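Consider the tokenized backbone below.
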């Protein structure tokens, strides 16, 4: 703080020195502008509808995460500890390693993220199915 003595009123009054405050704000501004963005989303593939209008797509692997935590791979029940091995055996002979995930209505995202981690660990690309893509049911 600075203090002025005397003057027309013959009294003292203080005023705030804002130069150090501005210096701190400028340093923080430079720091936050130079930091790289830390946001990272999930890499997913969205299925495209068939060109010829057919409803059935051959060879699509869909991992369903049900609201009670159960898993299904193309309507076949699979336990969590068997999912990685089951998918590796399915994709052993395939050139394109893409599996789609469908979450049943009130499913926790943590379960879907766990399936995505298992798929990435097996070297399989991940796609998410949205409601309205009825040909994958």
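A designed sequence for it:
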């Amino acid at each position: 703080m600075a203090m002025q003595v005397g003057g027309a009123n013959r009294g003292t009054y203080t005023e705030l020195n804002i130069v150090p405050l501005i210096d701190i704000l400028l340093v923080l501004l430079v720091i936050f502008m130079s930091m790289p963005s830390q946001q990272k989303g999930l890499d997913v593939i969205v299925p495209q509808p068939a060109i010829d209008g057919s409803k059935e797509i051959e060879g699509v692997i869909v991992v369903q995460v049900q609201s009670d935590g159960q898993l299904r791979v193309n309507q076949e029940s699979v336990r969590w500890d068997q999912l990685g091995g089951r998918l590796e055996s399915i994709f052993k002979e395939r050139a394109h390693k893409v599996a789609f995930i469908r979450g049943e209505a009130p499913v926790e995202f943590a379960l879907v993220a766990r399936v995505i981690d298992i798929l990435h660990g097996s070297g399989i690309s991940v796609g998410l199915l949205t409601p309205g893509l009825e040909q994958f049911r």
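Residues 132-137 have pLDDT under 50 and may be disordered.
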